[in-house]
Amino acid sequence: MTQLPPELVREALKRNKVKIENYKGIEYLRFMDDFKDVPRGTALFKSFTLWGYPHIGRIFQLSTGLKEQFTHPFFVEEKVDGYNTRIFLHEDQILALSRGGYVCPFTTERVEDFINLKFFEDHPNLVLCAEVAGPENPYVDEHPPYIKDDIQFFVFDIMEKDSQRFLPYREKEKLIEKYGLPSVERYGLFSVEDVDKLKRLMKRLNEEGREGVVMKEDSERDKRVKYVTLYSSLKDIEITSVNLLGLPPDYFTNRLLRLALFMEEEGIEADQELFLKVGKAFLEGLLKAIEMSKKDGRVYRTFRCRFKTRENALLFIESIKHASSQVQVLQRRLEKEGDYWVLEFDRVYLNMAGLLGHLLAGGSIFD
């Protein structure tokens, strides 16, 4: 067990690192930032703690990175392009936390569509760590190309309440198989000598438009690193350039560096077509932002997601309205379609809209 000392919690509260949250009458404490050894997203409920999902390092080269990071063989699995959730039993309810530690009304409501709930009946102390991905998710713009509509869940880890420990990989696999849990694609056990084998895998994932892989060492320390494809880096730029000012400059330089190093290691030629793709990824989003600013007076992205009840859709939209001071959330519509209530809303990027509005009106800036 890994319990949080009461004095640490009191200090975190005093420094405004922890916030009291409430989900349908369930009160809990949420760590808003990393604090000492406690990761962001850690949630303290009355009878247990759910530790935040740890940060995972990234390598930029396989040929040198594997030998530097691993001392034992490691498992490789797909890194799915979506958002992180932790699913758990609270008294008699199944809840789902976001990466930041919020109980998410959307994810919580959709769990039973994808997860065998008998897992929690048999293992009430275990927590499923999963990626939620698809074109109708309410958090991220990107999704794997093999998901054509709605969302899917992909379990990638199982942890314990009151503990930062993950179940050993083989034990996790047994539980996934026993309960028929949806899982990320698992590619097996590799060694540091399997660089060429991994390069072939990455080449295939890149061609299929997938994000990349996570590698997990088969050892007591359970070392983890991630490695992503050229496609992923390019797609990140393409999607986020519409909100260029809402992200720090190193978001983009980091992805350009990933892209260049992936090309170098995979022997991908820097031809005219690729140069055009990189330029287009930056400019297309900016041109779209300018067009939206001129036409609508704002810069935004529209999201769509499905709820089983109108109540949860309204609860969700209220919960995300105050998530960021730089983003305004505006509801477009909420209507019943078949078995679901479909919510559509815009995320308005205030910084981008403000600057473009100023410049298009003839304003000046000092640079």
From TrEMBL:
It comes from the Bacteria. Pfam families: Lig_C, RNA_ligase. Residues 73-228 form the RNA ligase domain. This is DNA ligase. Signal peptide: none annotated. One of its GO terms (molecular function) is ligase activity. Keywords: Ligase. InterPro entries: Lig_Pab1020_C, RNA_ligase_dom_REL/Rnl2, RNA_ligase_Pab1020. Residues 245-363 form the RNA ligase Pab1020 C-terminal domain.
